[in-house]
């Protein structure tokens, strides 16, 4: 089967940063399903895993953490899917990734593909949808069904993949959404997705929030990096909550958080699969919810561009664009 991998961790400008290779088709056992991959998406985590370092793999490493495709075989313990089902998922960072023609994945972190979307449109969603959903409804404990309606949330990094679905989920829960964007095209993008207010993350946040009439915000989601930590601490409402997806070496002073009795939550959508937590199946459930919301027209895909086919050249290009930190929505590759 076809696959795209690498043996050396090289700059994306290097022609050998990715290699087109052939692998033996795997066989599913246990809770695994075998998926014929039709489309994959690229996320910042892909570029972080591939980032240059002094290491050489004995056999090609396959990464990739978003896919949509068709189930072609199932393990003996599988109960959620059958051969022929169309699915979408984000995979497991501790296992071989989705940049291969046939991929093994645990059924408990897989959802049914939205019927109204193409494989490419569906592949744009899983990792970011899981991240945003878990951030809001599992970490911050926002009520999806509306009992927190009217409360405010600041989403830092609204035009990226997680922010793009996060804006929609926050509006679905009835929140007033303030998000950041800095370029005309990204400002337009986040407004299309439902943001109530847009501020510029390249300028001080506190004054901009005050100009909107907010003394504080009830929730903050940091969906890019921690450079805005100090502003976030000042902006969070006393007894409010902040969630972040970034691991950082930057200073994170906590005195003001203690004074406000505010809480900080970390989100990593791979935690459940990495540690095989007893609630792994929650990701199957939430992806099924996302599919239902998409098919009902209450959420939309966040795809921004499709490259075809899935090969080393196009993966290098997708990684290059992600590394510029100017991409909006999701870049998807389709077809081997």
Automatic annotation (TrEMBL):
Q: Major location, coarse class? A: cytoplasm
Enoyl reductase (ER) domain spans which residues?
11-333
Alphabetic keyword roster? Cytoplasm, Metal-binding, NADP, Oxidoreductase, RNA-binding, Zinc
Known SUPFAM superfamilies for this protein?
A: GroES-like, NAD(P)-binding Rossmann-fold domains
Q: Which CDD domains match?
A: AL_MDR
Pfam families on file: ADH_N (PF08240), ADH_zinc_N_2 (PF13602)
The UniProt similarity line reads:
Belongs to the zinc-containing alcohol dehydrogenase family. Quinone oxidoreductase subfamily.
Q: What is this protein called?
A: Zinc-type alcohol dehydrogenase-like protein
Q: Which organism is it from?
A: Pseudochrobactrum kiredjianiae
Its lineage reads: Bacteria, Pseudomonadati, Pseudomonadota, Alphaproteobacteria, Hyphomicrobiales
């Amino acid at each position: 089967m076809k696959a795209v991998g690498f043996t050396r961790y090289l700059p994306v400008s290097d022609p050998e940063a990715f290699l087109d290779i052939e692998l033996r088709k795997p066989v599913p056992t246990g809770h695994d399903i075998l998926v014929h991959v039709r489309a994959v998406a690229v996320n910042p985590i892909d570029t972080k895993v591939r980032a240059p370092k002094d290491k050489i793999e004995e056999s090609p490493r396959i990464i990739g953490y978003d896919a949509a495709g068709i189930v072609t075989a199932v393990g003996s313990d599988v109960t959620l899917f059958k051969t022929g089902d169309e699915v979408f998922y984000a995979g497991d960072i501790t296992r071989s990734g989705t940049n291969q023609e046939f991929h093994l994945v645990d059924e408990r972190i897989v959802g049914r593909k939205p019927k109204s979307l193409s494989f490419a449109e569906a592949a744009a969603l899983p990792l970011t949808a899981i991240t945003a959903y878990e951030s809001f409804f599992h970490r911050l404990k926002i009520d999806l069904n509306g009992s927190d309606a009217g409360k405010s949330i600041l989403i830092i990094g609204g035009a990226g993949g997680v922010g793009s679905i996060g804006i929609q989920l926050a509006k679905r829960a009835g929140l007033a959404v303030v998000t950041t964007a800095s370029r005309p095209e990204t400002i337009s993008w986040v407004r299309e997705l439902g943001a109530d207010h847009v501020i510029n993350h390249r300028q001080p946040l506190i004054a901009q929030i005050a100009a909107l009439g907010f003394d504080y915000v009830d929730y903050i989601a940091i969906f890019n990096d921690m450079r805005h930590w100090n502003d976030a601490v000042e902006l969070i409402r006393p007894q409010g909550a902040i969630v972040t997806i970034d691991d950082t070496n930057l200073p994170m002073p906590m005195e003001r958080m203690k004074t406000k009795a505010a809480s900080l939550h970390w989100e990593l959508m791979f935690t459940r699969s990495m540690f095989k937590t007893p609630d792994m199946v929650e990701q199957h459930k939430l992806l099924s919810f996302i599919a239902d919301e998409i098919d009902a027209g209450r959420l939309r895909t966040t795809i921004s561009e499709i490259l075809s086919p899935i090969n080393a050249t196009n993966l290098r290009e997708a990684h290059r664009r992600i590394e510029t930190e100017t991409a909006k929505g999701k870049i998807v590759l389709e077809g081997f």
